[in-house]
Amino acid sequence: MFSKMRISMLVASFAFLASVGAANAAGDPAAGEKVFAKCHICHQVGPTAKSAIGPELNGLIGRHSGSVEGYAYSDANKNSGIVWDVPTLEVYLKNPRAKVPGTKMMFPGLQKQSDIDDVIAYLSQFDAKGEMVKK
Question: Is 119 left (phi over 0), alpha (psi -120 to 50) or beta?
Fold first, then answer.
């Protein structure tokens, strides 16, 4: 029979191992900045970011799709009900038009999972004001 202390230690060990696995699965922000060059044609991030061909992407994680003030989104994006999180972005960045049929985003997607992970890690660094946050 396991004691309460042993069970607590096992649970803590599994939680630690899960967090290590999650950390290792995260992308590389520096590599993501390089991949983001493909996105920079339409999107900006950082303190001076503005919407251009596409909306600015500051504070993207946790933001509702179609919610940047002043950007003219497609009805598909405005009405998608999406809140951007890592799993949703992974699918969207692989094939935007499959995730949101009717989006006006013409980018065909990123094919390499490592590029997707890296871009998400890069974008995750920016808060809503475009300031880099340490995690």
Answer: alpha
